[in-house]
Backbone:
């Protein structure tokens, strides 16, 4: 029996290492875990978990065409490798105790029997081999049961197995530290190492709001009715109400619940007692994370729509953490579902609480995340050209503006969940037209003349709108990728030529590339991959996403921010089919940014590095890396004159409640230049955008992603005369989030979105317009579907912010 020692812990280890051991990115439908043991004096494979648990050289039953993975844990010191007959598939070689490897292969299309064996221990090959039975589940299950020897398990061992399974099923380790439980090192909830003594303290304190009279009752209450009492201390600060799932009543059996309670009161040595070799409850090995085709496709699409932006299409992490199976499987379905449903204080949205995903859907997503990420498709220039539609050729478009409105004072509003853009007259507040654009529209940029608007959807679909038409309409469309965030135009006019309205560029998250297009027709001209090496350690990165793109006024160049490699690429578009690129080393996780008031310097947030990189667009060099607060998110930032430090550019933060201002005047205020000279506290974190205008005395800032709903719909203004503190904050509505600020052309009014919920009548969203002098509300444009970003034509062309 000692041969199976510590096997339960090995399971945890398997789960941690699973993805790393798997080269193949395709979805696995069937998974088995084997370990090596001495059985009756000879080496053998032992099945771990699920239907093969405890069986020597088990038969592995699969269906035709299943994608099968066998994970091998070395149970001793010998060298081992799994080889599959007739497929050429073999695992790596393990030689140290607990070392793990795996092999993934495709089962044949027809029923039959394959063999697996140890490719190293050839002298004992007769003992270290088994069958892979390809056929219907019913026909092979009986065979498996009857033909394989198995190992009996003591009742003490069984109890510990139930305990481990219960912790795994509850996903407790995702949020709590629980000594002795594999992978239980979460920091979202209280550390449970000393829960007995803490429970005694809590139930006798005056703050206690529950009904428990004993430690056991306290733990039971905490699991079944988590809102009864919120523990005061969590590892990262005060514990948050609503984070602990309230559905354990339905998901844990009484036996499992009692096992958890007993263990937390009196932890036992699960290690020595788990000689049985039984799984700790890993659900990956027995299909609990399996999804039907339909569920998998839904989850894949939902991941792309909701999660890929922060966690990466390949799930390797970016703004949010990596979500590869080695990291997700140890958290378990319930642990992951809890995080998806409730969100986290570190910025993960509460998809369940917001009513966007149901409990069942969060569990589906949790299962999806424990599977290997499906490989996303590439896109060629040919495919882009096939998607290209020239709806109104250039010579059939108006030669002069067909409207009497001041089209330069149009503001284009993203109606995010409607997949539309509204063109609104800034003088009359009338909606001039609403046009269909891509999915979850992200941003709009204007051509250098202002006549054309380029709208990019998250699905990589780009729409070109002609603002000179009496009713602005889409004149061309194209799709340049599957996942995009940025678009920009050629703006340079000077000694090196006049490139106004000539070219456009889209920046993609997936595939990781940028595409140069004809600015008037959207014909795709050139695709350039950003797959490359990180600026610092030179690691190859398969998915360096294109974040912000801005057009330089100093050279015919675009500033392309390559997020994961930390490089700013200056792409010269003079000859767009043969572009030259100057690569500037900056900092990892470049995201969004804007220019200083002279437009010579570009300031971009390296958000997860808590820095702002300053690029000199005249010289094409990195000027400085400035330390700011946690997770800066400037949008394009705000330029203004600080009474003490002269011209500054400011950014708020997602991760802390402050606006930091960086001095930007190396000529007039050399001693302050490129330093973070001022921090103005805000009432909350979660800021996405800041804005001002040269004529304004205010700086406006939102806190759209604050977890407190009241702060999320609050806007603050800071006075340029006294920037030491906010001047005033107020809620702009009774629901939703106040997000993104824009001025009208005159710089006299401020437009803010109240971002609601698409399917809640009366709360879908509106635009609130304020007088910038008095801060009084002027009017509201109501019943818009989820308005988010907004872009005034004149201000966007001239980079006024
Ligand atoms: Fe954005 C700008 C990426 C979520 C509204 N956003 C940007 C830019 C990038 C980016 C790279 C800079 C573009 C440029 O200047 O060329 N945004 C991302 C994400 O990866 C992220 C975090 C997650 C995602 O899934 O997309 C994300 N963004 C959002 C939102 O949830 C917002 C609030 C609403 C929405 O669109 O769903 C949102 N992002 C905006 C807006 C801008 C923007 C309004 C332009 C700001 C400006 O003033 O120029």
Residues:
């Amino acid at each position: 029996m000692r041969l199976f020692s510590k096997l339960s812990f090995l399971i945890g280890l398997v789960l941690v290492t699973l993805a790393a051991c798997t080269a193949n990115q395709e979805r696995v439908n069937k998974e088995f875990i084997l370990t090596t043991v001495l059985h009756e004096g000879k080496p053998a494979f032992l099945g771990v978990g699920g239907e093969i648990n405890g069986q020597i050289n088990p038969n592995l039953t699969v269906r035709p065409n299943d994608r099968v993975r066998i994970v091998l844990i070395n149970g001793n010191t010998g060298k081992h490798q799994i080889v599959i007959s007739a497929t050429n598939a073999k695992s790596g070689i393990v030689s140290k105790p607990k070392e793990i490897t795996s092999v993934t292969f495709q089962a044949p299309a027809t029923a039959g029997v394959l063999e697996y064996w140890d490719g190293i221990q050839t002298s004992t090959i007769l003992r270290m081999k088994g069958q892979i039975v390809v056929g219907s589940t019913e026909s092979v299950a009986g065979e498996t049961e009857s033909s394989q020897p198995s190992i009996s398990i003591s009742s003490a061992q069984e109890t510990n197995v139930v305990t481990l399974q219960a912790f795994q099923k509850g996903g407790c380790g995702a949020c709590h530290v629980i000594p002795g439980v594999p992978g239980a090192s979460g920091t979202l909830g209280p550390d449970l190492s000393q829960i007995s003594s803490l429970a005694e303290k809590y139930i006798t304190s005056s703050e206690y709001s529950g009904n428990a009279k004993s430690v056991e009752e306290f733990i039971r209450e905490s699991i079944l009715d988590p809102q009864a009492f919120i523990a005061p201390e969590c590892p990262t600060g005060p514990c948050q109400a609503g984070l602990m799932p309230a559905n354990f009543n339905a998901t844990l059996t009484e036996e499992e619940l009692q096992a958890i309670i007993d263990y937390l009161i009196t932890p036992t040595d699960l290690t020595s007692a788990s000689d049985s070799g039984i799984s700790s409850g890993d659900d990956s090995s027995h299909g609990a994370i399996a999804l039907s085709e339909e569920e998998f496709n839904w989850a894949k699409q939902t991941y792309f729509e909701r999660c890929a932006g922060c966690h990466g299409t390949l799930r390797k992490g970016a703004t949010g953490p990596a979500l590869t199976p080695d990291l997700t499987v140890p958290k378990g379905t319930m642990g992951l579902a809890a995080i998806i449903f409730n969100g986290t204080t570190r910025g993960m949205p509460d998809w369940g609480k917001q009513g966007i995903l149901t409990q069942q859907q969060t569990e589906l997503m949790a299962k999806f995340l424990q599977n290997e990420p499906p490989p996303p498709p590439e896109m060629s220039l040919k495919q882009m050209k096939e998607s290209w539609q020239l709806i109104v050729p250039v010579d059939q478009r108006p030669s002069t503006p067909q409207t009497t409105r001041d089209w330069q004072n149009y503001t284009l509003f993203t109606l995010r969940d409607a997949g539309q853009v509204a063109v609104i007259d800034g003088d009359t507040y009338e909606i001039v037209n609403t046009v269909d654009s891509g999915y979850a529209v992200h941003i709009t940029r204007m051509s250098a003349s202002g006549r054309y608007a380029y709208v990019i959807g998250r699905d990589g679909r780009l729409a070109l709108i002609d603002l000179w038409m009496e009713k602005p309409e889409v004149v061309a469309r194209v799709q340049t990728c599957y996942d995009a965030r940025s678009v920009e135009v050629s703006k340079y006019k000077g000694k090196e030529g006049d490139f106004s309205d000539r070219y456009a560029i889209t920046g993609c998250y997936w595939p990781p590339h940028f595409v140069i297009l004809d600015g008037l027709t959207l014909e795709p001209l050139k695709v350039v991959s950003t797959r490359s090496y990180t600026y610092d350690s030179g690691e190859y990165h398969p998915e360096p996403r294109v974040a912000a793109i801005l057009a330089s006024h100093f050279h015919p160049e675009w500033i392309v921010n390559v997020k994961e490699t930390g490089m700013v690429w200056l792409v010269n578009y003079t000859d767009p089919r043969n572009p030259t690129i100057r690569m500037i080393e900056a900092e990892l996780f470049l995201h969004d940014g804007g220019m200083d008031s002279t437009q010579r310097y570009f300031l971009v947030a390296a958000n997860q590095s808590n820095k702002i990189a300053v690029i000199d667009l005249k010289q094409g060099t990195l000027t400085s890396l400035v330390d700011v607060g946690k997770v800066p998110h400037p949008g394009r930032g705000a330029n203004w004159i600080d009474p003490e430090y002269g011209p500054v550019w400011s950014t708020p933060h997602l991760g802390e409640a402050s606006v930091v201002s960086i001095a930007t005047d190396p000529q007039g205020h050399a001693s302050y230049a490129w330093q973070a000279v001022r921090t103005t506290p805000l009432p909350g974190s979660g800021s996405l955008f800041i804005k001002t205008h040269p004529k304004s005395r205010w700086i406006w800032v939102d806190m759209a992603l604050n977890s407190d709903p009241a702060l999320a719909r609050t806007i603050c203004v800071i006075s340029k005369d006294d920037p030491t503190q906010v001047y005033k904050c107020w809620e702009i509505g009774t629901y939703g989030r106040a997000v993104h600020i824009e001025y009208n052309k005159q710089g006299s009014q401020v437009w803010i979105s109240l971002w609601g919920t698409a399917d809640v009548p009366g709360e879908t969203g509106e635009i609130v317009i304020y007088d910038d002098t008095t801060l009084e509300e002027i009017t509201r444009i109501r019943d818009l579907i989820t308005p988010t970003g907004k872009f005034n034509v004149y201000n966007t062309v001239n980079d006024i912010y």
